[in-house]
Amino acid sequence: MKRRLFFGLELPDAWKDEIAIQCEAVRARGQVVARNWSRKDLYHLTVLFLGAVDPADLARVISAGERVAGEQAPFTLTTGPYGRFVQSRVFWLGLDERKSHLAALNALHRQVRAAIAEALPAVRVEDKPYRPHITLARELRQCQESDLIAPRPLSHVFTELCLFESTRDGGQLSYPVIRRFPFSGAAATRTPEAPAH
User: Fold this and answer.
1) Reported pTM
2) Which of 18, 21, 79, 165 has the largest count of CB atoms under 10 Å?
3) Distance of alpha carbon 156 from alpha carbon 166, whole angstroms
4) Strand ranges inside 54-191, DSSP E
């Protein structure tokens, strides 16, 4: 039986707790109405969704993750504004473009994608622009975007890539981490930036 896998970043518990509180406030004010709200244990940042993978190919998926993470340095991400995908009816929390190392995250996405294409050419990953986000709700019915204020920002230094499995446990959706890959690449030398205005 094939396994539904994806690479992603595991969020710290402090993020999950705070985001859940923020979501409850948005729901209580009636600013967002959705049929399916994510449980806080499902919050994560997807790096690359693989879909159905043959168990016989798992070792090659793991090898690809190890190789990419071995070249990646830790990087900081900070939460940003809310948003939604109109067609797929998804409500999400995005990242702050100025305070997050999005170049590092985007590079990680490209490198994982390339490693999987090389290791498993038969796996067809999604060919759409990468839009990193934390899914908060699906089957969106109402979203008063003009009334939504960006929640209090949360920052964290991410130090590992994770391989998740999308599975059902007693009928309930679950995303267990089946392998962790520490970032062990050297941080790039950066020129000090001028203070933000």
Assistant:
1) 0.90
2) 79
3) 24
4) 75-85, 90-95, 134-143, 155-158, 160-169, 172-174, 177-182
